[in-house]
Design goal:
It is a single chain. The C terminus is likely disordered. This protein is mainly α. It has 2 domains: about 210 residues, no CATH class; about 70 residues. About 75% of the residues lie in helices and about 0% in strands. The protein contains 11 helices and no strands. The radius of gyration is 29 Å and the shape is globular. Helix 5 packs antiparallel against helix 6.
Length: about 290
């Protein structure tokens, strides 16, 4: 009950900060300080959160610390992002038709990808962004099988696409120098540690085989690789044993007709054993019975 109240209070604070940053009138200099400086607060917040995790490295303490750290990071980013977008959307779009159309298509694609990452986290991890609902299980497949931070990657690409559509150089520079470094620092220093505390060895293995940001084709987990190797070893042993049994039986057949019949049986038996080994559903016992006939 206490964590629910803390989450609601944190959410109210984040919404109030973002509303104030987006709607309040201020001087140009003050707005520049807010746009460029607020996201930099992510660095000390992430560092303090990491120190708190290392002081008490338990899953329960990580869940409680997430509430304060996530909402503080959300407030810092929101107070920079909302006034930046207000200024950006007041600018004209690119006048070159084909460039404007290409940039608009990128905005749609990257925006849809960002929405899919939220669905992916909710469906496979039973969670929502930030501390609104911490993931109950580790999401490791779909988009999270290609990169450990698909939501941050897709959101950054979406923001960059909007900046390209407007032809705004300052927005792209702001995204690259003020927002992205803080987000990467937060993910590397704080988020990876708290996920390790909450999910243990499962997250360590997932981190080992999955890149942090740049997507890569998913690799099999060590357990699945070992199971596949064990299956292949068992299949190889059965194939060799079946060939041995077949050779022993076949040495007693001397008639020309029998040799021709056995030759045909050998072809289909080897073909079936090959398919059983590679397609994962061996029927070795029935194959042995056919050989022994």
């Amino acid at each position: 009950m206490g964590q629910v109240v803390a989450k609601l209070a944190g959410l109210v604070i984040v919404v109030a900060c973002c509303w104030w940053a987006a709607s309040a009138e201020r001087s140009r200099a003050a707005e520049n300080w807010l746009v460029w400086g607020a996201p930099l607060a992510v660095f000390p917040v992430s560092y303090a959160g990491r120190k708190a995790l290392d002081a008490r490295p338990t899953a329960a303490h990580a869940s409680r610390t997430n509430i304060a750290v996530h909402y503080a990071v959300g407030s810092a980013l929101g107070m920079g992002i909302f006034p930046a977008f207000r200024r950006l959307l007041a600018e004209d779009v690119i006048h070159t038709p084909w460039v404007r159309q290409a940039a608009g298509a990128l905005v749609i694609v990257t925006g849809a990808a960002t929405a899919l990452t939220v669905v992916n986290l909710a469906w496979r991890g039973l969670g929502l962004p930030f501390a609104v609902k911490l993931s109950s299980r580790l999401a490791t497949d779909w988009m999270y099988g290609w990169t450990r931070n698909p939501m941050g990657l897709c959101a950054a690409c979406w923001f960059a696409s909007i900046g390209l559509e407007r032809g705004s150089v300052w927005f792209l520079v702001w995204l690259a120098t003020s927002v992205s470094p803080g987000w990467i620092f937060f993910a590397k220093v704080y988020e990876e540690r708290e996920l390790e505390l909450r999910f243990g060895q499962s997250y360590v293995e997932y981190r080992r085989r999955t890149p942090m940001f740049l997507p890569r084709k998913p690799r099999e987990s060590a357990r699945r690789t070992e199971c596949r190797a064990a299956h292949n070893r068992a299949a190889t042993r059965v194939v060799l044993r079946s060939i041995q049994v077949y050779t022993t039986r076949n040495s007693e057949l001397v008639s020309p007709a029998g040799e021709a019949s056995v030759g045909g049986t050998e072809f289909w038996t080897r073909l079936r054993l090959f398919g059983a080994q590679w397609f994962g559903r061996p029927r070795f016992e029935s194959t042995r019975r056919e050989i022994s006939r």
